[in-house]
Amino acid sequence: MTARTTPQPPAAAPLIDLQALVVAVRRRRRLWCAMGLLGLLAGVAVALLLPPPPTAETTVLVAHQEDQPNDPGTLIRTDVGLLHTTRIAGQALRSLGSPEKPEDFMEDYAGAGLTNNLLRITVSGDSDAEAVARAGALADAFVADHVRRIQEAANAEATSLLDQRDRMREDLAEVDRAIGEGASESGPKASANLESLFARRAELTSRIADFDQRAAEARMGTPRLVAGTQIVDAPRAVRHSLPRAAATDAGIGLVLGLALGLAAAAVGTVVADRPVLRRDIAAHLGASVLAELPRRSSGRWRRRRTRTARERLTTTLARTVRGSAEPVSLLELGCAPSTGAIALDLAGALAPQGPVVVVDGLPGARLARRRPRPGDPAVVGGEAAGTVPPGELRLGVGSVAPGTAWTDLRYLGTRTVLVVRAGHGSTAWLHTVARQLADQHVEVVGVVLIDPDPRDRTDGTLWDGPPAPRGRSGPPAPRNGEAAPHAVQTVREERPAERRPTWAVRVPDSDQEAR
């Protein structure tokens, strides 16, 4: 009995690939570094061009009647709110003799609660002396207003208690009068009534004494609160350090600039949807990554590594072109200069085996219009591709950028190597390139990745990708550069056969089944 292997469902693609996002943001480091530098310079410019105005500070100790050890700071916040009132601002301006409006003056000072009973007042002015004078006047106005409110509250409480005491005294006088009138009467009922009147008089006397004591305590607590509310730190000018202010503003600007730059880079990456990882580019183009070359080389060690990588790539491509039965082309996407240099190096490597002609199909005919150097291969334009003699090896160079004439790519070569700059083409355009090349029956041998991310550790190999286009009739085609009969050049319009996935390959379960 044979067990049949069922295919595993493909893993669901994440909404946002964090690895690709991090790589793309890191590749756009010029943007967020420039934003950070711009923010740093803006911070320094603000510190130099907009220095803080002269400022003075003073600290006031505020005593409250309702002070509690577990107070969460409600009372001091109330004092801060009272400080920002036109009444206190107007009193301070009147003491200064200033015609300024209280509403305008309120914008020049601020209060902050340091503890439950400490209030810091910060005032700005045109000069240090003016700022100190305004801070002192504002603190005095606040203390005077606070003391007045305490005294008014104490007087109101004492007056209320004394009023109640007076009412009790009137009741007591009536009770005394009733006792005097009932003293002449006799009998059990008169005795009971007289006893209740004496109890009522004792209660009223006690309550009158209590109201007198509470009124006295209300007035006695006021001097303690008044003495406890005072200026504990005299107004003084605040010294500003220009280097410290510049460093602080520069740091804040740097952080904000970097944050904005990183956010812009991340949003731009998600919106643009331009693959940068090897695995994504290979998956979207349907071909494996053969090699990768850095776009820029800085430093002697990197230039040496780049030169070594280009020599290795040239050797690999030369082996591919020699063993190909059909013309091979190099098609670029976002890296025309690099593609032209690779084509010239490849033509130079193939020159010892025979004459090589480079067919330039790049936009603007970059190679055909360049000034030839001694030893350079022959370069012809794309319109002269059909005039290449059959015995010469032909190497086409073209582009798959937007605006490409897809039907002309087949004249450059029926097999191609895509030279793609990482992060240049969008996912939709990579799919378009793969679909158009398949429709034109142009086989993609592989992909050369330009300017890859140096920290990219993904695999750019397609293990279950489509094989080489098949379905061609007639005898085997000659090698690239050999004369081909007409029957060999006839191609059937047939779609390439699909490769069976690896999970569909049947493996025998036992030795008996294998036999």
From TrEMBL:
<feature type="transmembrane region" description="Helical">
    <location>
        <begin position="31"/>
        <end position="50"/>
    </location>
</feature>
<keyword id="KW-0472">Membrane</keyword>
<keyword id="KW-1133">Transmembrane helix</keyword>
<keyword id="KW-0812">Transmembrane</keyword>
<dbReference type="InterPro" id="IPR003856">
    <property type="entry name" value="LPS_length_determ_N"/>
</dbReference>
<comment type="similarity">
    <text>Belongs to the CpsC/CapA family.</text>
</comment>
<feature type="compositionally biased region" description="Basic and acidic residues">
    <location>
        <begin position="491"/>
        <end position="501"/>
    </location>
</feature>
<feature type="region of interest" description="Disordered">
    <location>
        <begin position="451"/>
        <end position="515"/>
    </location>
</feature>
<dbReference type="Pfam" id="PF02706">
    <property type="entry name" value="Wzz"/>
</dbReference>
<protein>
    <submittedName>
        <fullName>Polysaccharide biosynthesis protein</fullName>
    </submittedName>
</protein>
<keyword id="KW-1003">Cell membrane</keyword>
<feature type="domain" description="Polysaccharide chain length determinant N-terminal">
    <location>
        <begin position="16"/>
        <end position="94"/>
    </location>
</feature>
<dbReference type="InterPro" id="IPR050445">
    <property type="entry name" value="Bact_polysacc_biosynth/exp"/>
</dbReference>
